[in-house]
Structures are given as structure tokens and as C-alpha cells.
Amino acid sequence: MKDIFQKLLDEAKEARLKAYAPYSKFTVGSAVLTEDGTIFTGCNIENVSLGLSICAERVAIFKAVADGYKNIKAIAIIGDTEEPCSPCGACRQVMVEFSPNMDVIMSNLQNKIKIIKAIELLPDAFTGFNIN
Ligand code: THU
């Protein structure tokens, strides 16, 4: 695996420690790599009104976009799961919106890793509509 992907995983692991997940107790960390090498991290942030909770991946992506980066090369995700932590459908749609070609690096605490392109995680993604 590329050194930069390992670095992203390390950053995601660190970001996971900042997760606010008192309701599910399931903490997730994420890190996004932008075109110029800048890294943005995210963690899941829950709310007592449960539907307002947001995943680690979207926090990291939205931080990047808010700082002017829409071209995302890769995103790392880590959670305490049996298999490498796989992003939810909402996060997949957000990934495809900005960079369908980004590498999605999924991992767990045992360092079990799976890497796949965002578009492969959401085949036949909804990509737009016409208004007449
Ligand atoms: N969660 C993430 O942050 N990323 C994922 O890939 C899966 C789910 C969060 C959302 C919620 O705070 C908790 O994990 C349980 O679903």
C-alpha cells in the first residue's frame, strides 16, 4: 500500500479519538487527501435528536470542500468493525458528488484493509436531473 495511504489511516485513527458518539458508542475516524496533499480529518458527531448525527466521512469531506478542495484523491475510514469499516449509502453519494474516482480506504482496528473506488461502491449512482 502507498505510504500516503498509511499516513491517511494514521490520521483517521487519531481523528477517531475525537468522535462524539454517546448514543451508539460506535466511534469512527476519517481522513481525506486532496489534490495538493492537504489532509482533512473527520469523526462522527452524534446528536440527541439522532437524525442530526453525521458520519466521520462527511465531516472530513465537508471540511475539505469548505476550505476550497473539491478534488479528493482518497479517503480513509476506520472503525471497530469485524471487516474494514464500510461507508454508509449517504456518505457514498457525497463521495461520488465530488470525486467518483477517489480511493476509499476502509480499515478496522486490526489493520484489515480494503481499497475500492467511490463509484464502485455506488454503481448506477444518481448524478443529476433535468428541469423543463
Ligand atoms: N458512522 C460513521 O461515522 N461512518 C460510517 O462509515 C458508519 C457509521 C457513524 C454514524 C453514527 O454516529 C455511528 O457511526 C453509528 O451508526
Give average pLDDT, whole number: 97
Give the class-level CATH name. Alpha Beta
Assembly annotation: single chain
Provide the CATH architecture: 3-Layer(aba) Sandwich
N/C terminus separation? 47 Å
CATH homologous superfamily grouping? Cytidine Deaminase, domain 2
Shape category = globular
Largest sheet: 5 strands, mixed
Give start-end ranges of low-pLDDT stretches: none
The secondary-structure class comes to alpha+beta
Helix content class: 25-40%
Q: Kindly report the spatial arrangement of strands forming the biggest sheet.
A: 2-1-3-4-5
Bound ions, cofactors and other small molecules, one mention each:
tetrahydrodeoxyuridine
What's the total number of strands? 5
Number of domains: 1
Walk me through the structure.
The protein contains 4 helices and 5 strands. The protein has 132 residues and is an alpha+beta fold. The chain has a single domain, classed as Cytidine Deaminase, domain 2. It starts with a helix and ends in an 11-residue tail after the last helix. Residues 21, 24, 26, 28, 44, 46, 53, 55-57, 77, 85, 87-88 line the site of tetrahydrodeoxyuridine. The site of tetrahydrodeoxyuridine has 14 residues, from helix 2.
